[in-house]
Write a structure and sequence with these properties.
The complex is a heterodimer of chains A (529) and B (258).
Chain A lengths: L1 H24 L1 E2 L2 E2 L2 H8 L1 H34 L5 H13 L2 H17 L3 H11 L2 H12 L1 H13 L2 H42 L2 H6 L4 H10 L4 H26 L21 H28 L2 H9 L2 H31 L5 H13 L2 H12 L5 H4 L2 H25 L3 H9 L4 H29 L3 H6 L7 H11 L2 H27 L6 H8 L1
Chain B lengths: L5 E12 L2 E12 L3 E5 L6 H9 L6 E6 L2 E5 L2 E2 L8 E4 L11 H11 L4 H14 L15 H13 L5 E5 L7 H18 L2 E6 L2 H7 L2 E6 L2 E6 L1 H6 L4 H10 L12
Parallel strand pairs in B: 3-9, 3-10, 7-8, 8-9
Antiparallel strand pairs in B: 1-2, 1-4, 4-5, 5-6, 10-11
The chains are: A mainly alpha (529), B alpha/beta (258).
């Protein structure tokens, strides 16, 4: 019953608005027609959008895979000390909102000049506000996806398979003939995931004034309030995203986000001479992707007082953002838990469709979902709710529940089914089994997914910009408004503050998790007995 | 219920997976209070049979009767697994890793709605019975293999089950420990007076613990009887062949010839 309620809720808040958009796009004053679509596909303006969107997605995903796949290999297959810390540092750009990275790149020209690299600064200034600029920023944001996918895929390869080949063929041939062929579907899936995320990205193209479909949808809706045209502009994106989502599902099968290391033995290790290359690449990526942007922001802030004053003037926005993100994280994890549990334990055939729908909804531009929600909720009878924070929370929950469901489904799949069966056979009702066995064993996963959603919701722009009640704002929206209206130091302060809110708890929590654990007195007693 | 009464009855039970018949029109009767062993080679459908009795799998056809009540009939459940009052020792033990030894046992009693006061004493008594006193606060992962096995059996015996199902409960132990624990488990079952279905692929284990036993092969029941009756029928080629399969291609234990 609980699973059915969760399913109905999810369809109501996430699937229905998108479905409604499609229906609306077919309606014109003359009745049902494809007029919105024909105008979209025939105009030269649309061809520019199509070319830009495609080039942005293809180039970003190619560059991201060129950076991410070797780094994933480095993490999985070299004798690396402090591996969890390297992984954490390298995945940090994924957690920082892309527009923060975009803004910091805008400021980095000054930083380069300060370092005496005037030529580089000039080059950077000319291409930042262009398609190549957006490509570099998006690939620096998304390279952790192929990195994590590659590492997970390499860890999943049965070590016995590698060892059997190693004995007769040496490690190079083993790597080339056994290991890499086994991981290439996952690497391809990582490439496609970055492709659709870049295709749907709104904030960076909007910031750098690169015209793509994701920004066009917003323009059609916000500037012209043309719902049909906005929906029609979203349709090619939706179709491409849906096709690629099915392709990802097909490539990865049941291992969509699995990261379990295969048992039995240590992984096939590459020679130690490879380690310096891996470290060099990692440090270079970290320098360009994290250090330079943060240093550029810090340099623009200039004085600590500016940071203090800017954040002090934005307490309402910061408070709203924190409250919204925390609420959205709790609700999305709650809903995602039931959906993920259903996905992990069901035998129905269309679970593959569920995976593809979740991937599509996760990759869908926030603007598309936002417009769908506006269409659904902006009705005379619902105005008392529509004009409140509630609608923003619904938007954020709809946006992030698919991701929570996908991640938690994998967590549930790692729990032994026999634990639940044992509870059931020994007299426990379903809710007792769920509350007493499933949830306690998922505790770490629930916290991790909750934190991830909190971070992503904290930086979300595309949905909040459409659903925010009049006279209210959030920190990301204030940052966007500040770009045009305030001094750079204020903008840099807000960006730096947002980055700190994301990274500080992440590193503190990681410090506690990665610390070598001493066995408790109880455990010591247990071992001695 | 008197020992001569049928407690568990399987009527024309069938089950297929992906078109492959796992259980084929199987009839079986187990009497109240007896220890009934099912012997068979790997993949013959022993575990599926146990899971159907517990309610974890639905049969395609046939019915199961426990204590005079039909619990499932022609792939329709009439009684949910949690209401069948069954204790189950899983092959992988399925001990809950986030709960301590005592909490693993308490969970069963709480699920049955037993008061807190009674829970503490019942858990204490059971831990005494299975020689796990003093391990109350430990997590299952800190126990040895034998201790984990005892805990899984203790959990199956908690809450006064009417029927205990054991899926190769001693399979992961060395032969010396297995022999010792085998006698202990038998003693606990007899002390509590429950009916038990015990799956094994060890013929010596079967003849030692069973009041009656059956051989299953390819989803069908080949022979049912007491260990003595089996010894007498060892000249039957089909039974002899299956026992050889069961014993992992080793010849039948000559001690059986009696």
């Amino acid at each position: 019953m609980a699973l059915i309620v969760a399913g109905v809720l999810f369809v109501g808040i996430a699937v229905l608005p998108v479905g409604l958009m499609f229906v609306e796009s077919l309606r014109t004053p003359q009745g049902v027609s494809l007029a919105n679509y024909s105008s979209l596909l025939t105009g030269s303006r649309q061809r520019v959008l199509l070319t830009n969107s495609f080039l942005l997605a293809l180039s970003s995903s190619t560059l991201a895979i060129l950076l991410g796949a070797p780094l994933g290999f480095f993490l999985a297959k070299t004798k690396l000390g402090l591996r969890p810390w390297w992984r954490l540092l390298l995945m940090t750009p994924l957690l920082i909102p892309p527009y923060i990275l975009g803004i910091s790149w805008m400021f980095s020209t000054d930083m380069l000049r300060l370092l005496g690299w005037g030529n580089w600064a000039g080059l950077l200034a000319t291409w930042t506000f262009s398609l190549p600029g957006a490509v570099v920023i998006l690939s620096l944001c998304y390279y952790p996806i192929p990195m994590l996918v590659t590492e997970a895929a390499l860890n999943r390869v049965g070590v016995r398979l590698e060892e059997a080949a190693w004995l007769v063929a040496g490690w190079k041939r083993t790597l080339w003939s056994v290991t890499l062929p086994l991981v290439h579907p996952s690497v391809a899936a990582g490439f496609l995931l970055v492709f659709i995320l870049s295709l749907a990205e709104f904030s960076v193209p909007a910031l750098l004034r690169v015209r793509v479909f994701a920004t066009e949808i917003y323009t059609q809706f916000a500037a012209f309030y043309d719902f049909g045209a906005a929906t029609a502009a979203a349709s090619p994106l939706l179709v491409v995203i849906l096709i690629i989502a099915f392709l990802i599902r097909w490539l990865l099968g049941e291992r969509i986000v699995s990261s379990r290391r295969s048992l039995n033995s240590s992984p096939l290790m590459t020679p130690s001479s490879w380690l310096p290359f891996g470290k060099l690449l990692s440090v270079a990526v970290l320098m360009v992707g994290i250090l330079l942007p943060i240093a550029s922001l810090a340099m623009k802030v200039d004085r600590p007082m500016t940071l203090w004053r800017s954040t002090d003037n934005s307490t309402a926005e910061i408070g709203s953002s924190l409250a919204l993100s925390a609420t959205a994280a709790v609700l999305a994890v709650g809903l995602g838990l039931f959906l993920g549990y259903w996905r992990a334990r069901t035998n129905v055939r269309w679970k593959r469709v569920a995976d593809a729908v979740w991937i599509s909804l996760f990759a869908l531009p926030g603007t598309v979902l936002g417009i769908g929600l506006v269409r659904l909720w902006n009705e005379p009878g619902l105005m008392s709710f529509y004009g409140t924070w509630g609608i923003v929370i619904i938007g954020l929950v709809a946006r992030f529940t698919p991701m929570a469901a996908l991640l938690l489904a994998e967590n549930v799949r790692q729990l032994s089914v026999s634990w639940e069966e044992a509870a059931l056979v020994h007299g426990a009702e379903w809710w007792q089994t769920f509350g007493g066995i499933v949830i306690p064993n998922l505790k770490k996963g629930l916290w991790a997914v909750g934190f991830l959603i909190f971070v992503l919701a904290f930086g979300e722009v595309a949905i909040t910009i459409l659903l925010i009640p009049p006279g209210r704002s959030t920190l990301p929206l204030k940052i966007f408004a500040t770009i045009a209206n305030s001094p750079d130091s204020v903008l840099a302060s807000l960006c730096l503050f947002q980055t700190t809110v994301i990274l500080f708890p992440l590193f503190v929590a990681s410090g506690m998790i990665f610390r070598p654990r001493r066995p408790s007195a109880k455990e010591v007693r247990g071992l001695c007995l | 219920m008197s020992p001569s009464e049928v407690f568990l009855k399987l009527n024309a039970l069938s089950k297929s997976f992906n078109g492959r018949k796992i259980i084929d029109c199987l009839d079986l009767e187990v009497y109240a209070g007896e220890v009934f062993c099912i012997l068979g080679p790997s993949g013959c459908g022993k575990t599926t049979l146990l899971r159907m009795i517990a309610g974890l799998e639905l049969p395609d056809q046939g019915s199961i009767e426990i204590g005079g009540k039909i619990v499932v009939e022609n792939s329709r459940t009439r009684m949910a697994p949690q209401n069948r009052r069954i204790g189950y020792v899983f092959q992988d033990l399925a001990l809950w890793p986030h709960l301590t030894v005592a909490e693993n046992l308490e969970f069963v009693l709480k699920a049955h709605g037993i008061s807190k006061k009674s829970i503490a004493s019942s858990v204490g008594n059971m831990l005494n019975l299975v020689h796990l006193s003093g391990f109350d606060d430990q997590r299952p992962e800190t126990l040895s293999g034998g201790e984990q096995q005892r805990l899984a059996i203790a959990r199956a015996l908690m809450g006064n089950p009417l029927l205990v199902l054991m899926d190769e409960p001693l399979s992961s132990m060395d032969s010396q420990l297995r022999g010792q624990l085998r006698q202990e488990v038998l003693q606990w079952i007899k002390e509590l007076g429950v009916t038990a279905v015990w799956i094994t692929h060890d013929q010596n284990e079967a003849v030692t613990v069973a009041d009656r036993m059956a051989i299953v092969s390819k989803g069908c029941l080949i022979q049912v009887g007491s260990p003595d009756e089996f010894r007498k029928r060892l000249s039957d080629d089909s039974v002899r062949q299956i026992l050889m399969d069961v014993s992992s291609n080793r010849d039948v234990d000559t001690n059986w010839r009696g």
